[in-house]
């Protein structure tokens, strides 16, 4: 992506060292993911919220892990301290310690309008491996991109492709990430970790990067194998509920009040959107017309004229489960 932008406009302030830093940020931006990825992030943040702790972001952990990587490998001397700061800012998408052109911070983690290579990467890969293919062409998107006014903009004729991308995101979440069974397992995993935390200090493993390096999904085996440890009894019980699929699906009709304090009943809420909650994410993307040097954004009315859009971009479903005796 960065090489394409440079090729599009040779006058852009992008040095070879800048390109190297962007490439390293692309490789390292997810170093900070804990096992179970975003699910663990939700679990630990709920725990921290209840216990007065600060919110934990995997991007910040990626920056800490990057520092740990350099510390553990002192033979790596190629990067200067200001370049490492630049890489960190690229990972978080926030230019706090470095000063480079704004568009460079939109490549890996775009905080402006959520179009970046990270999104293309996981949507393309996950759609492929789940077996329903990729409905959008990120290579075409890349070819249609250029820098205008210090931000990455896209050719107007790629509008349909962007809609396909956001729909692919919705479909991926509905089919896999927020599938009702996945939501149930995530909720049970929350109970497993909270029950085992006092004994295994699970939520402290993200603080020390050396400890974090060895924090893998083997934590589940550690809980299961310690059958004589009474402190892990409740965690083992919940983990076995996942393994044996003890909870059966009851549908989307249920009473929330019936779930309170009832260990045999669980409700799971699923939020679906196109990446901008109730809004249309296409409204935020800067586009440009052929041979023009100014960028623009589409209004909702213009988008309605160009695309067959849903009437609502947000949906909420609650699934109910009950444990079989």
Automatic annotation (TrEMBL):
Gene3D superfamilies xrefs: Hypothetical protein af1432
SUPFAM superfamilies, per the entry: HD-domain/PDEase-like
GO cellular component labels: nucleus
Domain HD: 11-125
One GO MF term: dGTPase activity
GO terms of biological process kind: dGTP catabolic process
Family classification: Belongs to the SAMHD1 family.
The protein, known as: HD domain-containing protein
Species: Octopus vulgaris (Common octopus)
